[in-house]
């Protein structure tokens, strides 16, 4: 990357669509008018041609390698955002609307999944952390599972509330119920190692660590594919998508191409372990600065569940000071730092493309702002 490109790029801490690696953008730019000597852009190539076939197969193979996805799982690229799966999953996996689904509600996104699910099944809240403002998670011994749920669904990282389940431990609790485990990993997908074999279905909207908005990646165990109801509309039908290799209708070809570039970028950087290493450094740096600011900055999330991807924080619970912070941050090229409109405060999203250096620059700015506004 040239130094002029570098200086023009914002330090984007947005929660999604999030920052993309500059190498990926440059590669897409380079290939935009003439993809691999075809004289056409990737956006102008047939989804049934051999060039796109290679893009799709590469993306699937690279994802399989990066996450060590066992052969008993298929990878689907669906259209519509992750929200479409809030309906698509019960449509596929519940026999009828009398089936019970257990939802673990730890933030806005799992709450939305529960509310949408109610339209297609008997949705049961196993635990609801809203009365605790989604700041922590009650111990699993206090969760109330139903007798025979069709499956259990949870969200691994709540993007708005900044709360994340550490590691895969939660799956040990859930697997004791003996029913499929469904996980929304939209905002921490590809950020850390994950044992896919512990899950039956993992889904992620691409626009955080895996690409651009418009596609949702689904990793699904073959045993669930055979349970898909046949009267589900084709665009949502997991079994049909799998049989047709996500090509039953025209897929979002450019989006799949960008995801493919990102997967190759991650491999080149050293793989998921390297992403995890960098993400831990970034999150530790920011949380430790917040915790050592003598109460000027605060993060109210239970330290055990603090998200490594979306760090939410306040400045003396003072919205005016937070507005001032966001405005001054812009002058330092630090953008998209405000909290979600439903919760206020501030939020720094530390996705894979956000560098350790960018995080250090944010912390330096926070230090300067604190000294000037104490
Ligand atoms: C964890 C999580 N789930 C679901 C969604 C919904 O994604 P989409 O806007 O692609 O429907 C988001 C969006 O930010 C999210 O962060």
UniProtKB/TrEMBL annotation:
Gene Ontology CC: cytoplasm
Domain Aminotransferase class V, residue spans: 12-357
This protein's UniProt keywords: Amino-acid biosynthesis, Aminotransferase, Pyridoxal phosphate, Serine biosynthesis, Transferase
Organism (species): Tieghemostelium lacteum (Slime mold)
Principal EC category: transferase
Cofactors required: pyridoxal 5'-phosphate
Family designation: Belongs to the class-V pyridoxal-phosphate-dependent aminotransferase family. SerC subfamily.
EC annotation from Swiss-Prot or TrEMBL: 2.6.1.52
UniProt protein name: Phosphoserine aminotransferase
SUPFAM superfamilies documented for this protein: PLP-dependent transferases
Catalyzed chemical reaction(s): 4-(phosphooxy)-L-threonine + 2-oxoglutarate = (R)-3-hydroxy-2-oxo-4-phosphooxybutanoate + L-glutamate; O-phospho-L-serine + 2-oxoglutarate = 3-phosphooxypyruvate + L-glutamate
Listed GO MF terms: O-phospho-L-serine:2-oxoglutarate aminotransferase activity; pyridoxal phosphate binding
């Amino acid at each position: 990357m040239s130094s002029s490109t570098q200086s023009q790029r914002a330090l984007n801490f947005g929660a999604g669509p999030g920052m993309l690696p500059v190498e990926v953008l440059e590669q897409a730019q380079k290939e935009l008018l003439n993809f691999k000597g075809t004289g056409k852009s990737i956006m102008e190539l047939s989804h049934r041609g051999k060039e796109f076939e290679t893009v799709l197969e590469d993306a699937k193979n690279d994802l399989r390698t990066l996450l060590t996805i066992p052969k008993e799982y298929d990878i689907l690229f669906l259209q519509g955002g992750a929200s479409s799966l809030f309906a698509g999953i019960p449509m596929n996996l519940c026999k009828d609307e009398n089936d019970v689904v257990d939802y673990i509600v730890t933030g806005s996104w799992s709450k939305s999944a529960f509310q949408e699910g109610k339209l297609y099944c008997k949705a049961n809240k196993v635990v609801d952390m809203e009365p605790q403002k989604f700041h922590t998670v009650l111990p699993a011994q206090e969760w109330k599972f139903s007798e025979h749920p069709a499956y259990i669904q949870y969200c691994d990282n709540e993007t708005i509330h900044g709360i994340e389940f550490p590691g895969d431990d939660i799956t040990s609790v859930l697997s004791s119920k003996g029913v499929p485990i469904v996980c929304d990993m939209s905002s921490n997908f590809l950020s850390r190692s994950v044992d896919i074999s512990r899950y039956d279905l993992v889904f992620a909207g691409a626009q955080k660590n895996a690409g651009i908005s418009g596609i949702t990646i689904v990793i699904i165990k073959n045993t669930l594919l055979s349970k898909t109801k046949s009267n589900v509309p084709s665009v949502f039908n997991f079994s049909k998508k799998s049989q047709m290799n996500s090509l039953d209708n025209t897929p979002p070809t450019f989006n799949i191409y960008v995801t493919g570039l990102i997967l190759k970028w991650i491999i080149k950087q050293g793989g998921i372990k390297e992403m995890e290493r960098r993400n831990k450094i970034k999150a530790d740096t920011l949380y430790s600065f917040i915790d050592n600011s003598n109460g000027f900055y605060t993060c109210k999330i239970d330290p055990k569940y603090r998200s490594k991807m979306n760090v939410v924080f306040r400045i003396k619970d003072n919205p005016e000071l937070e507005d001032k912070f966001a405005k001054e941050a812009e002058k330092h090229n630090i953008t998209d730092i405000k909290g979600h409109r439903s919760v206020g405060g501030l939020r720094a999203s530390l996705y894979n493309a956000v560098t350790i250096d960018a995080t250090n620059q944010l912390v330096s700015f926070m230090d300067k702002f604190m000294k000037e506004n104490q």
